[in-house]
Structures are given as structure tokens and as C-alpha cells.
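User: C-alpha cells for Esterase, please.
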Amino acid sequence: MEHFHRYAQPFDYEGGEEGCLLIHGFTGTPAHMRLLGESLHKGGYTVKGILLKGHGTKMEDMEKVTWQDWLQDAVTGYEVLRRTCSKVYVMGLSMGGVLSLLLAEQYPVDKVVPIAAPIRIYDRKAHGAPLLKYFQKFKMWGGSGESSASEEFTDYKLGYDGFSVEALCHLLKLMKMAEKGLRQIQCPALVVQSKTDETVRPVSAQIIYDRIKAFQKEILWLERSKHVCTIGPEREMMHKKIHEFLQRT
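Assistant: Done. Predicted C-alpha cells:
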């Protein structure tokens, strides 16, 4: 497998007995999670940043994968950490956040951190993907995608410029599954969401918070970050809050 950038590859940082599974989002790469991973590793955690199938290579590879592949990637990463770590914390960005919720619904995850997890999205046309896929194979992301270095850590801004419409159908499936099972989550949860997210409606965070059954749960609201907030201007503050959350008994 040839990755389009070295930061698009999965990463593993060996640390202590507590492990963190990091899951990137739809069309993204582990690069979006690497800064968080490095911060967690400095805090003494063992960190595993996985690469979801169909990502990090070329956009056409997205056509070959399904939601089952992505969920299995997440499960495999969790199981690898569970074999060697006394506790496993799962955190993911966007679709990775959805996968983190599904893991917390189905497995004994110790703590979960869904970041910009899409329960509600702005693009209503996305829900037409099951029909659109018969007429259009790929769709490019809208907008210029440009942002200044003061807004985002651009060295880690690595992902596809578009996506497979067929793959979008599988993302929508994961979103429905995760929302349906929210009440099964009982582990402590830190829900992270930016109020200025251009992709995910901020109400998504409130829906997650309201429906999960965790005794310990909170929302971290970001004020100035875009959707890929893990490389945004509030990333260091987010790192601090996640560290505090993981250390809390």
C-alpha cells in the first residue's frame, strides 16, 4: 500500500498501561489525529492511531470499502490495545467519532471522546447519496479548503479533496447505527464540538450528551475551530481538557 504522505500512515506510540485508540474521519488520515496522539504519549499513554481502509492512498480506493470494514478497523485497533493495556480510551474525529461511539456501545470501553461526531449535518443533499451514487461516482468537497497557518496546523491537513458517493452511503449508515445505540453508552464521555463547525451541526453534541447513560459526561464547546478541530487553533486547549478527563477518577 502506497500512502500519499508519511503522516497519512498509522502510528503507534508505546507508553504506559493505559491505551488510547485514535480514529480519523471520513476522507481524512491519521495526520489529523497525530498532534493529539503525540500529546497523549507525552502524558504517558500508549497510543494507537489507525488508518481506515480506503484512506491515505487515493480517493478511488474508497469505492472498495464498506461501513463493516471501517467498524472492523476500529474493533481491531481496540482489541490490540485491550490485549496489552489495563484501560482503553477511544477517541475519534468526525466519522472516527461515530466509530468511537459504536465501540462504546458494543465493547467495554473505559472512556470515550467523540470529537465533531456527525449526528446532524448541514449538507442535506448528502442524504440523497443512495440515489446519487447511480449517476455520480465521486464528488469534490465544496469551498476552497484554504485556511491560514494561524487557524490550522496545515502540515497535518492531509486528506482527500473529494469522496466516493458510494462511501458516503456507508458513512450515513454508521451515523444511523451510532445514534440508535447512544443509550447503551455508560462509560464516562467527553463530547467535543465546535460551535463554528461548517460540516456538523453543533446540536449533534447535545444529542449525544442527552441520550448517553453515562454518570460522568460533559461537553467541551470550542468557539473558533473548523470541523477538523484537532489541527485547529484550540487544539492545545482541547489536549489539556482531554488529559484532565482521562485522569479523572
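User: Anything notable?

Assistant: Residues 144-150 have pLDDT under 50 and may be disordered.
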